[in-house]
Amino acid sequence: MAKSLTFSADYDPELDAVDEDIVSAGPSTGEMERAERASLRRVAGLSTELADITEVEYRQLRMELVVLVGVWTDGDAEQAEASLAELGRLAETAGSQVLEGVIQRRERPDPATYVGSGKVRELRDVVSATGADTVICDGELSPGQLRQLEERLKVKVVDRTALILDIFAQHARSREGKAQVELAQLQYFLPRLRGWGEAMSRQAGGRAGANGGVGTRGPGETKLEIDRRSVHKRISKLRKELAAMRTVRSTKRDRRAANRVPSVAIAGYTNAGKSSLLNALTEAGVLVEDALFATLDPTTRKAVTPDGRGYTLTDTVGFVRHLPHQLVEAFRSTLEEVGGADLLVHVVDGSDAAPQEQVTAVREVIGEIGEQHGDSMPPELLVVNKIDDIDATRLAELRHLLPEAQFVSARSGAGIAELREAVAQYLPQPDVLVDALVPYTRGELMSRVHAEGELLEQEHTPEGTRVRAKVRSDLAGVLSEFATAG
Ligand SMILES: Nc1nc2c(ncn2[C@@H]2O[C@H](COP(=O)(O)OP(=O)(O)OP(=O)(O)O)[C@@H](O)[C@H]2O)c(=O)[nH]1
Ligand SMILES: [Mg+2]
């Protein structure tokens, strides 16, 4: 204050700048107040929870009438149609009703409007004819493309990334899962953040924008900065929380590793039957649904090999072509389950038209995690599921295409016994022969021998349990204290 008084008589560029700001921000005090009230209300909502922003932009996808549009740049028409069909399934999973799907053949998406400008007009006709309220594009669009398309089509435009984020938001159950999805949504949302004034003028069909001018734009932009800052703050808070949760998760995994309970991770394309397979192998009762991304939180269950050794089996989130990179990043800790496992069971839907493409898409994501993960990834056991749903010719074809795979049906149980054997082959074998007299006070050691080792002989004596078994070296070390001569 003292400073501004002292210098007020002289020229001060800083003060000049302040003056100019005030002038340009408020042509009329009434306008200012109204905009300020609006912006204040919104900030209040923001400070408690960002739900209002994410709700506006993402969560309203549900129960909408949508038209799908894809730009087909390479590959054949069949692949382009399959990709659009998958987009349709994703849209339905998100709760939308698909009215129509259109594809344009183009060298590359139009930088301004995704589809070519001629097509935008056609698309506009399709939208009015069907009465759709949303258009979903089969790709990730730039903020500019989304805005331009929206302006021309006069309906909401959503891209594949936002759609997948929306599904994840609807399905995440655990605290960690929810935090990961929110982080991914905010990262996606940040560069697409628009001013409140602009959003209002959009809603008013351009009328407010036309006469709003400087008065609405100024405060709108201030609001935009506040929004940005809040989003940044929320992002760093989520990052911290997730880092803490990740530590807990890795501690748990370390504990499992210390106990040397072998672990198997089930990964694969969404809807391939991962949860069904987990159920078939363990009778776990995990949610199975004919919907994409039914499982978002990893579920771990105990399983046993045919020769009685225990291991853990973890169901993971499904993969999809063009998994938004924000999600690959955000779901790293979940996907790390895969990196830490002794074996990766990679499930493929054998009834899919092109299972090899699913295999490639999944391996791409796994490769990405592997790079980040640093150390070596576990071996992969490929499993083709749903063989009850294909005919003998197709089965023979697939056996030829994927000779390394196990062929099963989680539904009918075909091939499950063989799969159990195959999994057991990959798990560390108990190979140290021990003879020990375990006191009755150390019952937990006997439980471990039963669970992890291969029991050869057991006899209850007054001093304790005499046991002869094959175990892995870590347990043999613990048992050496009670070793008997032979
Ligand atoms: N015909 C047939 N259908 C199967 C088989 N296994 C699973 N399904 C069906 O496939 C659909 C998806 O099964 P899930 O086990 O939920 O698949 P998932 O891979 O866990 O899916 P997400 O968690 O959504 O990624 C369900 O409708 C199952 O009933 C099978 O062996 N044969
Ligand atoms: Mg599942």
Automatic annotation (TrEMBL):
It is found in: Cytoplasm. SUPFAM superfamilies: P-loop containing nucleoside triphosphate hydrolases (SSF52540). The lineage of its organism: Bacteria, Bacillati, Actinomycetota, Actinomycetes, Pseudonocardiales. The gene is hflX. CDD domains: HflX. It comes from the Bacteria. It holds the Pfam family GTP-bdg_N. Monomer. Associates with the 50S ribosomal subunit. Keywords: Cytoplasm, GTP-binding, Magnesium, Metal-binding, Nucleotide-binding. One of its GO terms (cellular component) is cytoplasm. GO terms for molecular function: GTP binding; GTPase activity; metal ion binding; ribosome binding. Belongs to the TRAFAC class OBG-HflX-like GTPase superfamily. HflX GTPase family. This is GTPase HflX. InterPro entries: G_HFLX_dom (IPR030394), GTP-bd (IPR006073), GTP-bd_M (IPR032305), GTPase_HflX (IPR016496), GTPase_HflX_N (IPR025121), GTPase_HflX_N_sf (IPR042108), P-loop_NTPase (IPR027417). Residues 262-431 form the Hflx-type G domain. GTPase that associates with the 50S ribosomal subunit and may have a role during protein synthesis or ribosome biogenesis.
